[in-house]
Amino acid sequence: MTASLSYRFDAGDDCLRTGIGSRESDVIRVTAGKRGHALYGPYVPLPAGRYVAKVRFARERACKGGATIDVCNNPVILAQHVLRGEDIASDGVARIEFALPDPLGALEVRLYSDGSFCGDIEAVEIAGVPGSVEEPLEFSELPTPRVENVVLKGRNLHDGYQRSMALGLFPHLARKIDKDPDYRQARDIAGQRTIVSENNLKNLFLIFKFFLPRLSQPAHVVEWGSYMGGGAIFMAVLARKFLPGCRVYGFDTFKGMPPTDAQVDQHGAGGFLDGVNLNELRRYVRDVGLDNLEYVQGDFADTAAPALRRIGPVGFAHLDCDIRSAIACAYDATRPHMVSGGYWAFDDPLAPDCLGAAEAMEDLLVRRDGLNCEQAFPHFVFRQP
Ligand SMILES: C[S@@+](CC[C@H](N)C(=O)[O-])C[C@H]1O[C@@H](n2cnc3c(N)ncnc32)[C@H](O)[C@@H]1O
Q1: pTM of the model
Q2: CA angle 115, 117, 120 (to 5 degrees)
Q3: How far is ligand 1, taken at its centre, from the CA of residue 252, in Å?
Q4: Is 333 in the pocket of ligand 1 (CB under 6 A)?
Q5: Overall number of domains in the chain
Q6: Do 210 and 95 fall within a single domain?
Q7: Which range of residues forms the domain containing residue 357?
Q8: For 128-154, what is the mean pLDDT?
Q9: pLDDT of the residue at 55
Q10: For ligand 1, mutation pick of 253, 299, 318 (most atoms within 8 Å of CB)
């Protein structure tokens, strides 16, 4: 790493503090016999970027014993190493690398002695390269809900809570998804071609990265209502990475909304025509190399049954067609092909102008088929029993 930002804080500097150490003329002296923080500070602000923190020890007095070094934005520990004084390199420096996805106001480097550590701390150095950091979100970072991790009534509320709490209650996780390289790539390739909300896209990302790969059989993805094609592109980029062999199919008239039911639907015939250009969309998909994505043009009433026979098993259905008749047609046509445990994600029922979509979901999934949802935030998700 060629550092373009570097700080050095000598042991005498007030911003370096000690709990169990003693300040000598130009070192913080740590002796065996006391357990606790031998060093903390310097509370320096840092921009996002990749850094290394170094604790420099005086070479005249060999380090010994056990300690933990960490870098933190109290109370969040960003990186941590357990070290033995005897293993510190001959240059007398203990190093710890860390990445900051977001800027922070007060970075702390700490050395905690297990009671056996001794050494003379000369300085703390922090150096690195500011800039944006892309870091994959790990499954272990998702919240741990208190409900049991079991399938009940055909769905697993533990899975649902993990996703909805991650997106609704832990803003740092939503920010972290923004920096995940696979989310970024899918989001950037879909660009302005989708009107799906950012939170709903993030939930699709969580399902595609962590949950869909657990299905017991390979299966494909269908999107009912593709409009300018971006939602399907987003899912195809993720499927290419996380679901080998999976193909994505985007269904739409690509000529605007079909006739709607004036008693339940706020949307009217001909909506969603602006910005649609199927030939240009197909060219774009070819140019970005998405050979796992296909668009099927026509009213679902005509296209769904023959296409689904050709597609085979479905593991994920994104229902984003806004009106009652279309949701009903798409759900009933897909149901015989949906694998056990497969996902139904409804983009619309919570939208202010899509009560027709909500009614189809209530009538068919809840009342007729007796399903309960696995997730209600940021959109409804059901599982196929
Ligand atoms: C909200 S848009 C879809 C948004 C899209 N998923 C995205 O990523 O931006 C709804 C689409 O559903 C389509 N649609 C609704 N009913 C349909 C039907 N019966 N057959 C075909 N397309 C339909 C409309 O043409 C419209 O383009």
Answers
A1: 0.75
A2: 135
A3: 5
A4: no
A5: 2
A6: no
A7: 139-383
A8: 92
A9: 97
A10: 253
